[in-house]
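Appendix B, Record 12. Input sequence as logged:
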Amino acid sequence: MPFTPVLRSEALKVLTLRSLCGTLLAVFAVTTAFSALAGASGTSEPDFDPLYTSLSGVMPGQIAAIAFGAMVVSSEYHRAGIRVSLAAVPRRGRWFAAKMTVVALPVLAVGTATAFAALLAARAGLGPAADGLTTGEQVRAVVGCGVYLTLIALFAAGLTTLFRSGVATLSVLIPFILIVSFVIGDAAGGAADFLPDKAGQIVLHQSYEGPLGPATGLAVTAAWAAAALLAGAWRLRHRDA
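Logged structural output:
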């Protein structure tokens, strides 16, 4: 079967599952709401970063992006749906590519729109405190935010294919981002800069220090996502459905 029909069928699966559409809506709602609250709170700290504050809602919002990536894949393992999918598309690599495409494209579109809305909402609360932001910095952060959310969703999708369980993926990734990155990451010193979330979120900062910048930080997150996808693809190709 050609790739286009496979992609169309996988997209229809996403559109017909309300929980998946609701998860994308949660990415928008949670990120925008928390960014608006952060902007309304303001700050007087000397190291205040108005760009990061404006997009700080990404921290809780990324949980919904992770859930979306995990649920798109895990839905195939309910009631052995994966067997039907692979019977219709025997070329597993083609099916996997289509599945990852329907993870990436919606998250990229929603993530970019979310970042733009969050920036506007937060800037309304920050007022003059955000006047120093340049157009280039804001465009970089909005586009980078969309790319970051896409990569983190693909990371989750790859791990779910590897584990064959959305619950297992969420049990690993959510504590990792909420606990390991902040607690162990701080104790690990410079090594924390190369964690998938910390590296990717550099693009959200107006100023940054350390070995990574916005582009290289996203490249590190992309490497984590690629590793998870390769591991998931290997599991899919070499194990029974």
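DSSP finds ten helices and no strands in the chain.
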